[in-house]
Each structure stands twice: as C-alpha cells, then as structure tokens.
Amino acid sequence: MSGHLSEHAYGKIKIRVMKLNRQSSGRHEIHELTVNTLLWGDFADSWTTGSNTKIVATETQKNTVYQLARSHDLSSPEEFGKVIASHFLSTYHWITKVQVTLFEDPWGRIHIDQEPHNHAFTKTTTERRYAKVVQSRGAPAKITGGILNFIVLKSTQSSFTGFVGHKGSIMEKDKWTTLGESTDRIFSTSVESEWEYASDKAPFNECYERVKTAFIKNFAGPAKEGVPSPSAQLTQHQMCLGAIEACKPHITDIKIITPNLHYMPLSSLNVPAHMHATNNDVFFPIDGPSGYITSSASLNRSKL
Ligand SMILES: O=c1[nH]c(=O)c2[nH]c(=O)[nH]c2[nH]1
After folding, report:
1. Residue range 19-44, pLDDT digits in tens
2. What is the signed CA dihedral for 247, 76, 105, 216, rounded to 10 degrees?
3. CA distances from 88 to 66, 70, 144, 183, 256 (A)
4. What single DSSP character describes residue 158?
5. Distance 233 CA to ligand 1 centre (A)
6. Domains of the chain, start order
7. What are the pLDDT digits (tens) for 50-74?
8. Measured distance CA(260)–CA(224) in Å, rounded
9. CA of 175 to the centre of ligand 1 (A)
10. Is 262 a catalytic residue?
11. ipTM
C-alpha cells in the first residue's frame, strides 16, 4: 500500500460538567463547562494494527474530567484545563501532547428586589467564554482565551462612505457597486475573538473581564456621546488594541471576527413606497448575506 498514517489524535468531546460550591454563608456558586479533550502520543498502533495497548479510552478521559472536577475549582476554565492536561501527561508517559478546550455556560445570579439571590441563577447573556490549553510534555502550557457570540449593537455613530464606486475612492465608478454611502446606520455584530496569553500563569478571569470591557468601550465610546465608527474595520482594530492595552503584558496576540448583523432600512425591502420610513426608524434584521470582517493584533513587545 502506498499510503501511511501521517497524523493521529483522539479524545472526548461534549463532556458537560457543572460544579456547585456551597459556601458556609449559605451562598452557592455554580460553574458549568463543556470540555473537549484531545491526546497525541505513541498510539499509532491503534490505527495501523488495531492494537489498543496504549489507548486511554475516551470513556476514561470523560471519567477523568468528572473526577478532577470533584477535587478542583471550575471558576477559571484556563486553570481547570491546565489541571486536566497535566493529569494526562503525568499519568501516561507515552502521551506527548494534550489539548483541552473548555466552553463556559454564562450563568448569572438572580436578584430579588436588587438583592443577590443565594442560590438562584439565570442565563443572562448570549456570550460564551472559552479557553484552550495545549501542553506538550516538558513545556509550559500554551493558553488561549476566547469569547463567542458576544452580541453588541449601536444605533448611531456608524457610517460607511468613500468606498469603491464612490467619490474619493480609488475607483469612483464601479458598475458592480449598488450600496449607497451611509452617514448614520445601525452597527451590530456578534463578536468572536481569541487571544494568546504570554504565560500559563496570567490572571485569566481578570483578563477575560478586561477584554470584554475594552471591546464594549471601544465599540460604544463614552455613554453620552459615543464614538464614531467610519468602518467596521477601524472599530474592530480599536477593540483589539484596547484589549491588548487593558491586559498588558498578559495578552500577546488577539484575533477577532465581527460578522455584521445587518439591520436594513425598509426602503430596501419590497414594500410599498409609502411605507418607506421617513424617520429611518423601522428596520428589518437579516441573517445573511452578511459582512465578515477579521483581523489580528499583537502586543508591541519593544514598548513593554
Ligand atoms: O463597515 C463596513 N465595512 C465594509 O467593508 C462594508 N461593506 C459593506 O457592504 N458595508 C460595510 N461596512
């Protein structure tokens, strides 16, 4: 046969775990995670000969996550991921690399008449925090933090002008361009981002909150006046720079994807002309097609 095994890895996905921490004050804390494990090592035989002598069953990997959850805190997905990765490397000497990905479910505490409830929670946001821990034997863990589905919207202070097909652009006439210039539009996006930590000992929970705050601040601007966004591209880059600055020196690289969630004016919908809103105040949201905008930024290490 002319083919050969060139790569192999295996693991368990969708290991859902919730930890309840009952504090003596009567207050409860909950943390819910979905964990994926992936192992690399000297187990090619399982693929090439069917011999499983070095295979740590994916069922065992699942059990391991629950056992480690019994003895460890789940409040930081990055820290719990490190615990899982170290466990596999220290227990099975033929495993060379472990990747653990952990997605958090966003439980928020219920408040009754402004008072935080001791033991009742609700899912308050759409966002999903995640962490990825990749650890090779003998090396420090590489830690990635991330956020998915973090939805934001601003109802003004967003424009888009001067693009190809319009005055001032590199090509003022373009037969393919139909979009008119806009000086006041709705800007909404579902932010997806991930960032690399400089070390495996960064203050992960604090950095996560700082990234989110920097994203919001740079997207929205000050509470009263906001901040202009001449392109989704510029705002996206400012969000990344803000996150790096807010977490200095812990985050070295950040990547962001902001697919537009479009709110179209009625005038672009097939409705009678007299229904075209004159106030520009009724819109129809569309799922797609939508703009897909992505960029990365890195910490300028020379200025540290
Ligand atoms: O901020 C924007 N950037 C674009 O690249 C683009 N393209 C588009 O159709 N609308 C927008 N808006």
Report:
1. 999 999 999 999 999 999 999 999 99
2. -10
3. 14, 16, 19, 55, 31
4. B
5. 8
6. 1-139 (3.10.270.10), 146-304 (3.10.270.10)
7. 999 999 999 999 999 999 999 999 9
8. 24
9. 17
10. yes
11. 0.98
